[in-house]
UniProtKB/TrEMBL annotation:
It comes from Flavobacterium arcticum. Keywords: Lipoprotein. Residues 40-97, 225-448 form the Sulfatase-modifying factor enzyme-like domain. The keyword Kinase does not apply. One of its GO terms (molecular function) is formylglycine-generating oxidase activity. NCBIfam families: GldK. This is Gliding motility lipoprotein GldK.
Length: 460
């Protein structure tokens, strides 16, 4: 052991002598890094603002007293997440679910890639074509991890083969095994009507893991490894939106066309997605991060930081668009401009939903954006935030990046009001909430990403 240490020290000395740093402390240098603005997002420069109600609290809720706070810079989606964007998530999960089932059945039947076009072409990537060899890394990982799985999933860690395209035409299915897998993805024929078989959307589940860093940081245990595993959270979420919300949210009302067409039909592709729970919105953020980082890795680029839901303070700061003490994103105090046109999609009069030009939602890029180029921060759909609702939270949260994330509190803050709300809920300071496992026809979301660096602030 002593000889090994001495040899290591000698090698380190030789490497230092042969380097170009001349023995100086220059730090570890990597590739030059520049911030890249994510597609469809805008940069919100950090700064301070007065959070809370500066106007009279007409509803007398008294849950938003004024408080000066500071938030860091972040990127935010210019629009609410649309049906088209969320469908990309659903289609990815569907594709992965089918490929996983094909790979598992191929494994059980002993089928491997061989160019014959059967289910073996969709086998796990560790099932190599005869004559090929695995790299030492892949062999080691398979022998010591992937082939063992875990307690809940014997196939955990095994990589899917995304190279062969999935075959959609039933008449072109390559073999009976492929037919069996595809048949398992649909509802039974007895539950179909009008000659159409419907996908069983309850099988479209997204699995991801995250670490509760805040809770782990407060743990005083000295066993770091045990502490880490203790706070690893594993989620499995059904991703398909609840389209029945259009009917359940409104008793004695005919909204079946929205239930039938709103999410999947391309006519509504650029409208905000609704019917998603807080948990589904969080899953979308995890998938978006995974999807982008897979591309970054493939191109040999540095991974990005995570997409996430905005905190309540970040949402309000962004909605104000740099205007201090404003009632609405456009200033206020009125919801009409000087020509008498409504400035947002909401319920302006008693039951007259269409007075603003829309009966339900409108396209996500409708009406004028605020000074941060954010559309529909008031109206259209209310938006999930990462914060838990506590009427007294403004009294105790920090003045720096305030947030109240309480996992035991299932009431999550929603902001901005929606197409079915009166103007009070459109005010940038109005707080509202919904249960995390509830889906509504008037609640959507948008995502944010932390800005890497501190030099960009709105106070410069």
């Amino acid at each position: 052991m002593k000889k090994f240490i001495a040899l290591t020290a000698t090698l380190s000395l030789l490497i230092s002598c042969g380097s170009s740093d001349r023995g100086e402390l220059v730090g570890v240098r990597g590739k030059q890094w520049r911030p890249e603005k994510p597609y469809g997002m805008t940069l919100i420069p950090g700064g301070a603002y007065i959070m809370g109600k500066s106007d009279d609290d007409l509803a007398n809720v008294q849950d938003a007293p004024t408080k000066t706070v500071t938030v860091r810079s972040f990127y935010m989606d210019e629009t609410e997440i649309t049906n088209s964007e969320y469908r990309q998530f659903v289609e990815w999960v569907k594709d992965s679910t089918i490929r996983t089932r094909l790979a598992i059945l191929a494994d059980e039947m002993g089928q491997k890639p061989g160019g014959e076009g059967g289910i073996g072409e969709y086998a796990f990537k560790d099932q190599m074509v005869e004559g090929e060899e695995q790299s030492p890394y892949d062999k080691y990982m398979y022998d010591n991890y992937y082939s063992l799985g875990d307690g809940d999933d014997p196939y955990a860690g095994r990589k899917l083969n995304h190279q062969p395209k999935l075959i959609q035409d039933p008449q072109q299915y390559p073999d009976e095994y492929y037919v069996e897998v595809m048949d398992s993805m649909y509802l039974p024929a007895s539950e179909s009507y009008n000659g159409l078989r419907t996908m069983d959307v309850s099988k479209l589940k997204f699995k991801y893991s995250w670490m509760d860093i805040a809770a782990a940081a407060k743990d005083k245990s000295k066993n770091t490894r045990a502490k880490r595993s203790k706070y690893m959270i594993h989620e499995q979420v059904e991703v398909y939106p609840d389209t029945t919300v259009w009917i359940k949210d409104f008793s004695y009302s005919y909204n079946e066309p929205m239930h039938n067409d709103y999410f999947w039909h391309q006519a509504y592709g650029e409208y905000p997605v609704v019917g998603v729970t807080w948990g589904q919105a969080k899953a979308f953020c995890a998938w978006r991060t995974l999807y982008k980082n897979a591309y970054q890795k493939d191109k040999g680029r540095q991974e990005i930081n995570s997409f996430r839901l905005p905190t309540e303070a970040e949402w309000e700061y962004a909605a104000r668009g740099g205007l201090q003490s404003a009632t609405f994103p456009w200033g206020g105090p009125y919801a009409k401009n000087d020509r008498g046109c409504f400035l947002a999609n909401f319920k302006p009069n008693r039951g007259d939903y269409a007075a603003d030009g829309a009966l339900y939602t409108v396209e996500a890029q409708s009406f004028d954006p605020n000074e941060y180029n954010l559309y529909n921060m008031s109206g259209n759909v209310a938006e999930w935030t990462d914060s838990s609702y506590d009427a007294a939270s403004y009294e105790y949260v920090s003045t720096m990046n305030p947030n109240a994330p309480d996992p035991s509190n299932r009431r999550k803050v929603t902001r901005g009001g929606s197409w079915k709300d009166v103007a009070y809920f459109l005010q940038v300071s109005t707080r509202d909430w919904e249960y995390a496992d509830s889906a509504r026809s008037y609640i959507g979301f948008r995502t944010v990403q932390d800005y890497m660096g501190t030099q960009n602030t709105g106070n410069q």
